[in-house]
Structures are given as structure tokens and as C-alpha cells.
Amino acid sequence: MSPESHSPENHSPENHSPESTSPAGSASTALITGASAGIGREIARVAVESCDTLVLVARRKERLEELAAELEALRPGVRAVSWAADLADEAARQALPQALQAEGLEIDWLVNNAGFGVAGRTDEIEVSRLQGMVEVNVLALQHLTRLFLPAMVERGRGGVLNVASTAAYQPLPWMATYAATKAFVLSFTEALWREMRGTGVHVSCLCPGQTDTEFFDDAGMDGASFEKMPSAHPAAVARAGWEGLLDDQRVVIPGAQNKVNAALVPLMPKGLVLRVGEKLFRTG
Prior knowledge:
Elements: E1 29-33, H1 38-47, E2 53-58, H2 61-74, E3 79-84, H3 90-102, E4 109-112, H4 127-155, E5 159-163, H5 176-195, E6 202-206, H6 215-219, H7 234-246, E7 251-252, H8 256-264, H9 270-281
Parallel strand pairs: 1-2, 1-4, 2-3, 4-5, 5-6, 6-7
């Protein structure tokens, strides 16, 4: 029972479609949101191995520029573009495709990684924080997917990687809105995976468990029992997600225990799931 930090049923016949196109090539462009830290930053470091242009989107401009310089040094000839934007702003999202087109960039691979969590009892959390979480975790992800997907379908190639969490598999008291947003991401992505059959467009949902990033500090989870549990390294999570996207895996869950939890938790009595979740995530 764990959320990813910003956070498989990989190789079944249903997950790997024979209609899949070839993986990313050296002439492809990837756009990665939430690229300034954590899993998003590590996905950029993996994607640079197979893409020649990366568009890095996040709010923290300095961090993006540092990462862009690192990526261009890692692989000569690669172009890394920093794009500082608050994805909670609909106007900023709407302007992105046109701005990229003006730069001569077509997005082949979209990684919707941006997101955050807020811990606490719902009636005690600021309304603006809850609304912002839904805006970034849900609306921005759905909006960017819709903006870039039609061109991918028209070209018959590319793909979308949406970052959810193992929190998507159960309700979590004290992280109620966060878990609900990730349940949306999982459901939306699985349905989209099916819709894209035969188009040549890949779709994958990455559902990490606890990962060693800034998530817990940002979420205000001091004192929660879950914070003390073992964490995965974000580089391993990122590689699993990127490779899963290239393989057109519907859902990627890194880590054996996370796979077991994702399979078993939905079968458990809901009252038990809620009590355990409260014990793990309650703060204060």
C-alpha cells in the first residue's frame, strides 16, 4: 500500500501487442513533465539514450537548465530544451504545442510525470492545495495527452507514459485526494491503451511504490509510518517505466512486492484496507 514519489503486469500477451511499432529512434523527441527532480529527471536521463531531442517541463527553471546541460554533455548532438511552466495553469498548457511547433518540434513521446501529494485529514488541508493537486495530477495529464495524441495517431507512431502509483489500487486515508487522482490516472491510461490498439501509438502507466525522492518532504508526511519503509531508487523506476513504454506494456509496476500488493489489495476487505492505510499514512 504505497504511493509513488515525485512516484509488472508487464509481459502478459494482453500487455504486449503485436501491433506495436518499433521503439524510439535517434530522430525522435520526448517531452517530460516534472523533469526537475525525482522520477521525471531520471526518465530524462534514460530517454536521452534513444531520443535526440528532449523537452523538459517543470516550474523550477534553474534545475531544468542544469539537467538540460547535463543531457547535452552525456550524448553529443542531443538537444535539450528547458520549458519552465506551471502545469496547473490551463493557458500555459494550451500554449505549449504551438510554441513547440514554432521551434520545429514534434512530440513523439509524452511522459506525464508531473504531480504531487498532500498528506493530512481532508477537512484540514487548504482548499487551494487540494484543487492544485487535482489540476496537476489529473487535469494537466489528461489535457496534455489530448493535445499531443492526435499528431501521434496521424503519424502512426510515438507514445504516452503516464505516471500513477501503487496508491491507485486502494483508497488512502490521510492521502485521500492523492490516491484518488492516481486511481484516475491508472483507469484513464488503461482505457487509452485499449483505444490505441492498431494506431501504432504506445500507452503505458507506471505505478511505482515508495521511491527515494522529495515526495515525502513536499507532501508534509513527517511522522507517517510509511515514510520509514524501504524505498526504490528513482533511476530503476524510471528505466522500468521508459522500457515499458517502448514495449507498449499497459501497466508497469516496478518491484516484486509492489506487484503482489497491487494484485492482492483490491481483493481484501475494504475496511481492513482503510485501517492499514490509516496506520501507514496518518501524520501527527
